[in-house]
Amino acid sequence: MKFFIDTANLNDIREAQGLGILDGVTTNPSLMAKEGITGTDNILKHYVDICNIVEGDVSAEVNATDYEGMVREGEQLADLHPQIVVKLPMTKDGVRACKYFSDKGIKTNVTLVFSAGQAILAAKAGATYVSPFVGRLDDISTDGLNLIQEIREIYDNYGYETEILAASVRHTMHIVNCAKIGADVMTGPLSAILGLLKHPLTDIGLAQFIADYQKGNQ
Ligand code: G3P
């Protein structure tokens, strides 16, 4: 399973990249705003900064809601850097724009996906990635991981090449369960990724090893 980090925070991206386990980055307008990155020029520059830190795909989201606007904005984003993936919302215009970009060989990520039906449409439109939001479904008492499982089954039935990018991942068990189900990619915050490191027996065992090593060196 590929690991993407879901943030526009350059320090978090650098830290995950430094670990050597990062495969890409996803962002959205809310994550940009959270970092105080506003205004088109600043946002475009920030995408390039992110691409210069990581080696993998970097999803950059369009803000237009109409087909022509999405195509215009998506082309501008794709021209920024070869690592850019054009992120489009799951709407009628977004699906049309996805087909436009996939026909041109430009990578796409269809976002705000909350049902298996929407995921089928994204695959039919040739999306590179489909982003079902696990955490936001959990937030409304619906099993977000169940959606990942449904999409996995449907995509496998037909050999769809669209990669399932489990998004809105919030914690370590989301990551572990996405891996068990067979999501192609997960994207989550640095805290969820670093959470995978934690086990009290590792800490206790390491403290013991250090203590025993020091006995022999006193
Ligand atoms: O990848 C989608 C993500 O940014 C949404 O996450 O935690 O705001 O639901 P969250």
TrEMBL record:
Protein name, entry field: Probable transaldolase
Described purpose of this protein according to its UniProt entry: Transaldolase is important for the balance of metabolites in the pentose-phosphate pathway.
InterPro entries, A to Z: Aldolase_TIM, TAL/FSA, Transaldolase_3B, Transaldolase_3B/F6P_aldolase, Transaldolase_AS, TSA/FSA_arc/bac
Entry annotation: catalytic residues: 87
GO biological process assignments: carbohydrate metabolic process; ketone catabolic process; pentose-phosphate shunt
Keyword rRNA-binding: no
Cleavable signal peptide: none
EC number: 2.2.1.2
Pathway: Carbohydrate degradation; pentose phosphate pathway; D-glyceraldehyde 3-phosphate and beta-D-fructose 6-phosphate from D-ribose 5-phosphate and D-xylulose 5-phosphate (non-oxidative stage): step 2/3
Transmembrane segments: none
GO cellular component: cytoplasm
Family indicated by similarity: Belongs to the transaldolase family. Type 3B subfamily.
Reactions catalysed according to its record: D-sedoheptulose 7-phosphate + D-glyceraldehyde 3-phosphate = D-erythrose 4-phosphate + beta-D-fructose 6-phosphate
Entry-linked NCBIfam families: fsa_talC_mipB (TIGR00875)
Subcellular location: Cytoplasm
SUPFAM superfamilies registered for this protein in UniProt: Aldolase
Top-level taxonomic group: Bacteria
Gene3D superfamilies: Aldolase class I
Organism from which the protein derives: Flavobacterium stagni
A GO term for molecular function: aldehyde-lyase activity
HAMAP family assigned to the protein according to its UniProt record, in alphabetical order: Transaldolase_3b
Annotated keywords: Cytoplasm, Pentose shunt, Schiff base, Transferase
